[in-house]
Amino acid sequence: MEGRMQRLQSLIGPLLDAIRVFERVERMFHPAMIPRHGEALNRKADELLNARQAFFSRDPDLPSGDAEDAVIRAVDLVVESARIFSSSEGLQSGIFAAMRAMRKACRAKEALFGLRGRVEEIDSFFREAPPRSAKSPGHDLKNEDCLIHTGVESDPYARGASSLFVPASPAVPGLLPVVIALHGGSGHGRDFLWTWIREARTRGFILLAPTSVGPTWHMEDPLPDLRHILRQVERASEHYAADTSRMLLTGLSDGATFALRCAMLPSTPFSAFAPVSGVLPPGEISGAAGRRIYWIHGAYDWMFPPERARQGSSRLIEAGAEVTLKVIENLAHAHPREENGGILTWFDPGLCLP
Questions:
Q1: In principle, which of 12, 274, 281, 346 could form an S-S bond with 219, CB 3.0–4.6 Å?
Q2: Residue range 171-227, pLDDT digits in tens
Q3: Around 78, how many Cα atoms within 13 Å sit in the side-chain half-sphere?
Q4: Which Gene3D superfamilies does the entry mention (predicted)?
């Protein structure tokens, strides 16, 4: 009889492959490509179902443990996500279905993350490639990092919740920079956290992914959401070595627009801003003088045309902000994860990989 982990390998490989396809779809997402994306996802879902069936048929009487339960839950979530992705035919309903599917796929990652200290392949999946586990300079080789979700107990996806990742303690004690990642409209920090988790584990920074108080970030009156974010930062700094003098505020879509709104305020605790696929909100812009901003936008953004990013960055520069605008040719309205490293190096050269 095969050992538990050996049996699980027959599922873990296809499962991680399917999640990677979801990540590629998320990166390349465009409404016009929903049918093509759906076909690719459903093919992977079918392969995953076959692997699931083979897993159980091999030895159906072998009792399951927590590792098997986590992997099976992740498999079921990925398959369900693929089916949801292709569940609507209309353009608008198709976009909403795709967004729901991609958020649900994030929960498969959460189900697997607890196995990072037990399965090398899963540990490597949640690090930057090529895998650098056991080679991160200045950091512990053990999986002593932690992931903490706060919010309403009965509803882990309540508004006003927050997710915090703290990396393993550095070999040389010191304060760690903080990256605050803001989700897009109707999203949730618990899902958006996975956009930055590999870099946080590999490079060693504290990652905070708060959830907006309302359905999305409030642009006209940013103070309630801003107070919520800063309360989470304060709580993190009470328990962990957070360097609140080095805080990057980044976000996608509405999260990016809110980050820019915070950059426009007369005073801010954030040392840098990295909006992705957002727009400059209306309002007094003089507060942006001296702000460091790294703005990423897609040349094929179907929600916010790139011209709006160019106009917004020009206005910020005129107001005295230090702005870098990068328009990516093969990007629509999405977060390009391959740019995370460049954003981090720009924010803090100490986070650059050797």
A1: 281
A2: 678 999 999 999 999 899 999 999 999 999 999 999 999 999 999 999 999 999 999
A3: 35
A4: alpha/beta hydrolase
**CA–CA dist 188, 186 (Å, integer):** 7
Residue 136 φ/ψ region, left for φ over 0, alpha for ψ in the -120 to 50 degree band, beta for the rest: beta
Backbone φ, ψ for residue 66 (5° rounding): -65, -30
Cis peptide, bond prior to residue 130, ω within 30 of zero: yes
For residues 107 and 138, membership in a common domain is answered with: no
Q: Report the DSSP pairing between strands 146-150 and 162-166.
A: antiparallel
Domain count, the chain: 2
257 with 343, same domain: the answer is yes
Say whether pTM exceeds 0.90: yes
- The last residue of one of the domains, among 81, 113, 145, is 113
Q: For 15-73, how does the pLDDT look when each residue is reduced to its tens digit (9 = 90+)?
A: 999 999 999 999 999 999 999 999 999 999 999 999 999 988 876 665 578 999 999 99
First-to-last CA distance in the chain? 44
